[in-house]
Amino acid sequence: MSRIGKKPIEIPAGVTVNIDGTNVKVKGPKGELVNTFNNNLDIKMENNEIVVQRPNEEKKIRALHGLTRTLIYNMIIGVTEGYQKELEIVGTGYRAQKAGKKLSLTLGLSHPLDLEDPEGIEVEVPAPNKMIVKGIDKQKVGEYAAYIRGFRQPEPYKGKGIKYVDEVIRRKVGKTGK
């Protein structure tokens, strides 16, 4: 039984939600998000709350019930507060620079990596070894942060690479002399 799927989603002030069948459009102070959900679920608006209901107890429908409710909730949080992921660069000579909409990463490769910010995503570089990926779509923010991290993942011996700020790297001991 989905406890998350049964919880109604309260709509905060300043946010407008338009439900057209399976299409949900959320508009708030930070922007607008549109998503299409499974047509087997019933999405309704009642008393300034969004309620997701399922027609039967099939396993697939039960799995989609909580997921749909969480995705709609994430859309509402995104247009009101936004999402951000903080990345940290560890390593001698590793750094990030920002010029306009281009992010330039120097990660010990033969050339610097120049990345263009995707639509709806903004990257801030407050320090040469810190990056903040911001946006209103939680999935896009997470994907882009993981994409940046994928260029130089942290290694377990010295901890060099790009890591999330709250990530803990399990360290290994190196070789010992005879």
UniProtKB/TrEMBL annotation:
The keyword Transferase does not apply. GO terms for cellular component: ribosome. Keywords: Ribonucleoprotein, Ribosomal protein, RNA-binding, rRNA-binding. Pfam families: Ribosomal_L6 (PF00347). The keyword ATP-binding does not apply. Residues 11-82, 90-164 form the Large ribosomal subunit protein uL6 alpha-beta domain. InterPro entries: Ribosomal_uL6-like, Ribosomal_uL6-like_a/b-dom_sf, Ribosomal_uL6_a/b-dom, Ribosomal_uL6_bac-type, Ribosomal_uL6_CS. PROSITE patterns: RIBOSOMAL_L6_1. Belongs to the universal ribosomal protein uL6 family. Part of the 50S ribosomal subunit. This protein binds to the 23S rRNA, and is important in its secondary structure. It is located near the subunit interface in the base of the L7/L12 stalk, and near the tRNA binding site of the peptidyltransferase center. This is Large ribosomal subunit protein uL6. The gene is rplF.
